[in-house]
Write a sequence for this structure.
């Protein structure tokens, strides 16, 4: 299956990163968002990130210019109709994603592969509501996309081999590494990572350690580049809680119960770096633990 044009729906932090790596690898990118502001911000972010790569000698100026030319933005979903592959990277809400697929499908070629970058929603369920469950799968990038090496490829129950191989071919062309995961709650990375983060929050909640001692224990004692609480702040505590809820509901095992302290931080609106406060307070020059 020959893939040349890639449609991306949603130009937020993941969508802009996906557009960046796809265009840099030579694909033509059609980037869609409902918000003109989000599209402009995405182009500015991609330009800034490419400039940084040029500064570090990783990308030539000619490649940067050609990459930017390969990205076309549009607020009209129908303009993604000629895509060979569509990656949906819009807001993590099932009704939003479902409405996008419903609006998009009448404009697509019968051969177009449809994928979602969802972190937690069932691929099989999303696929079942489309006209092409066999050509539907999960294409799960890690954040920040230009930096992180892994892409999880998730087969729904109906995904055919040709679709999986075509997506694997795209990951290869990006120079990234694919991990194949079955369609169960939170797939592989978040199935393992989130319970560890949740356990770190329990360790804090029960007073076993402070924010600083928990993070330095995992950094120095287990050689993790970031402590689990620092990492939770980076991901977003609302996202961490949402994924724990998906694990808890989807696997019906009390070992996945979200820590009440994590819930409390989210209720307070202390969501981590994006709101300037989480397990650390980022409003000053250096992050200060909040417990
Ligand atoms: P984000 O909030 O930064 O961006 C979402 C974008 O979707 C926004 O620009 C919004 O305007 C747009 N959007 C909303 N409804 C739309 C519609 N109907 N049509 C087109 N665009 C629409 O979110 P994000 O962090 O980029 O996450 C996007 C997806 O990627 C989610 O499914 C999320 O679970 C997944 N994901 C996120 C991360 C992460 O670390 N943030 C990592 C892996 C996967």
């Amino acid at each position: 299956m020959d893939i040349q044009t890639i449609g991306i729906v949603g130009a937020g932090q993941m969508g802009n990163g996906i557009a960046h790596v796809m265009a840099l690898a030579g694909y033509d990118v059609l980037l869609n968002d409902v918000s003109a502001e989000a599209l402009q911000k995405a182009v500015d972010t991609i330009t800034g990130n490419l400039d940084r790569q040029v500064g570090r000698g990783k990308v030539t100026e000619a490649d940067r210019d050609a990459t930017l030319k390969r990205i076309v933005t549009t607020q009209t979903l129908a303009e993604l109709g000629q895509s060979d592959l569509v990656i949906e990277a819009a807001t993590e809400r099932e009704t939003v994603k479902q409405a996008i697929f419903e609006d998009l499908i009448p404009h697509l070629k019968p051969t177009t592969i449809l994928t979602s970058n969802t972190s937690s929603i069932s691929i099989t369920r999303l696929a079942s509501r489309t006209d092409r469950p066999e050509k539907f799968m999960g294409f799960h990038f890690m954040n920040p996309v230009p930096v992180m090496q892994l892409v999880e490829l998730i087969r729904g129950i109906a995904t055919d081999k040709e679709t999986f191989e075509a997506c694997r071919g795209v990951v290869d062309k990006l120079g990234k590494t694919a991990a194949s995961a079955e369609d169960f709650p939170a797939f592989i990375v978040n199935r393992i990572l989130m319970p560890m983060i949740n356990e770190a929050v329990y360790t804090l909640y029960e007073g076993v350690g402070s924010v600083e001692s928990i993070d330095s224990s995992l950094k120095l004692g287990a050689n993790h580049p970031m402590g689990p609480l620092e990492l939770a702040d980076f991901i977003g505590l609302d996202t961490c809680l949402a994924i724990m809820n998906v694990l808890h509901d989807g696997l019906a095992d009390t070992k996945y119960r979200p820590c009440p302290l994590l819930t409390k931080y989210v209720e307070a609106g202390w969501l981590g770096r994006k709101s300037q406060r989480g397990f650390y307070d980022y409003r000053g020059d250096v992050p200060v633990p909040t417990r």
Summary: The domain at 189-289 is CATH 1.10.1040.50 (N-(1-d-carboxylethyl)-l-norvaline Dehydrogenase; domain 2).
